[in-house]
Specification:
single chain
């Protein structure tokens, strides 16, 4: 079994070029470009990513160009030449393909810092630690959590993690997604059945993809809610 490496923080100054390239390709936040540029004035290969990215804010691009020393300018020129030699296939790689080539440690770093598209890709990662790291991303939205809670590709431990987050479980859409996902452990799903609206309980009770315990709980609750 492949062992998941320990991750100690995230530093733009030491992150691999591959990780930074994916982050910059996915983000539209000016602060990310600014932080990457300021942390990597000593790395021509990273500066190239910043300068050539069409989404780089003008002030960030100007900042980088103004602070390049002569040796750094020469190195940057060499990097551009080497980059031009890349094949069309390499340049045309999708974000998903680039991410799939990364190590587990690198994918964990991306899961913690990446934007929405990166999170969407890594939320389907088969490695448990990568998928769980997506849930730790400070920018993840409630709609993303709902999508993860509803997906049958989501690992059981991730569903358990969502269920333990009280703030997320205050949102009806997330509760509904979790309860109606056949992958959710029956004990967890049953504990939230009472939070569902009657119209959703009717559908839940008829859903044969769900555990019998979940359907039975829905049936009992429907009977209890009938007018006397």
């Amino acid at each position: 079994m492949e062992e998941t490496p320990k991750l100690i923080g995230f530093d733009y100054a030491t992150a691999s070029v591959e990780i930074l390239e994916i982050l910059l390709e996915d983000t539209s936040e000016p602060d990310v470009f600014d932080e990457v540029a300021k942390a990597n004035l000593h790395r021509p290969e990273v500066l190239r990513l910043v300068i050539e990215n069409p989404d780089t804010p003008g002030e960030v691009r100007a900042y980088v160009e103004e602070r390049l020393s002569l040796p750094a300018r020469a190195s940057l020129a060499m990097v551009k030449v080497e980059k031009a030699r890349e094949t069309v296939e390499t340049r045309g790689e999708s974000l998903t393909t680039k991410i799939q080539k990364l190590t587990i440690s690198a994918r964990i770093q991306l899961a913690l810092k990446g934007g929405r598209e990166i999170r969407g890709i890594l939320a389907r990662d088969t490695n448990k630690e990568v998928m769980l790291s997506v849930l730790e991303n400070g920018k993840i939205t409630e709609s993303e959590i709902e999508t993860i809670a509803r997906s049958r590709q989501t690992l059981e431990e991730a569903l358990r993690r969502i269920a333990r987050n009280r703030e997320w479980m205050r949102k009806y859409a997330i509760v509904h997604a979790l309860v109606t996902n056949p992958k959710t452990p029956a004990g967890i799903a049953v504990s939230y059945v009472s939070d569902l609206k009657t119209k959703d309980l009717v559908i839940l009770e008829r859903n044969k993809n769900l555990a019998e315990a979940v359907r039975s709980a829905a049936k009992k609750l429907l009977h209890a809610r009938k007018p006397k």
